[in-house]
Amino acid sequence: MIEFKGVHYPKSVILYAGFFYLRYAVSYRDLEEILGERGVTVDHATLNRWVVKFAPLIAAQAQARKRPTATSWRMDETYIKVKGKWTYLYRAVDRDGQTLDFMLSERRNLAAARRFFKRAIAANGVPDRVVIDKSGANLAGLQAVNVILKFTGDGRTIEVRQVKFLNNILEQDHRFIKQITGPMMGFKAFHSAAATIAGIEAAHVIRKGQIPANGTSAFQTFAELAA
């Protein structure tokens, strides 16, 4: 259960505000105005604090509760602007387009790629194969993971394929994230960017039906992750 102690608004208001910000292309000022029209007075700075505090917690619950994914992965990076500079959002989906994991990084190199693959494997298990682009860093990251698997696991390693067109499903999936982050016009700090993107990814997982919903709405599923 996620604790909402110390906030001066009802939990339902915080969850509604967070869900609509993370699911739809609105700015904090847009959301402030929308809530005002519904009789809820809250400033955009407070909305930002709610998202930064609670979005990563809800995202962690989404990762833990999502349905099992396929063992054929697609991995690539896209770009997110933070403090006026481009950072790298590592993302992976399975062959059916289901979200596996994501990680915002200030650098695009071997260490970042290796860290992402280890994180994704910890959450989803070892895949049979991973499709990547021609990035040497991503290839080296997978090779480093394979060395670890070879000597610490059952000897089974991951098949690596560098076939660009097979990653089209992931390129399409990037677009949803970009549609939501576009109106945000860049982030002021790395930690708030990472927190916000975690929430956007959680909303995207819900949108794709990866969380057992029992016939509830997307918002109800989101709220249940905080229960």
From TrEMBL:
Pfam families cross-referenced by the UniProt entry: DDE_Tnp_IS240
Superkingdom, natural source: Bacteria
GO MF annotations in UniProt: DNA binding
Signal peptide stretch: none
Gene3D superfamilies per the UniProt record, alphabetical: Ribonuclease H-like superfamily/Ribonuclease H (3.30.420.10)
InterPro entries recorded: DDE_dom, Integrase_cat-core, IS_Transposase, RNaseH_sf, Transpos_IS6
Keywords linked to the UniProt accession: DNA recombination, DNA-binding, Plasmid, Transposition
Coiled coil: none
Keyword DNA-binding attributed: yes
One GO biological process term: DNA integration
Keyword Transport: no
NCBIfam families: transpos_IS6 (NF033587)
Function in brief: Involved in the transposition of the insertion sequence.
PANTHER family, per database record: BLL1675 PROTEIN
Protein name: Putative transposase
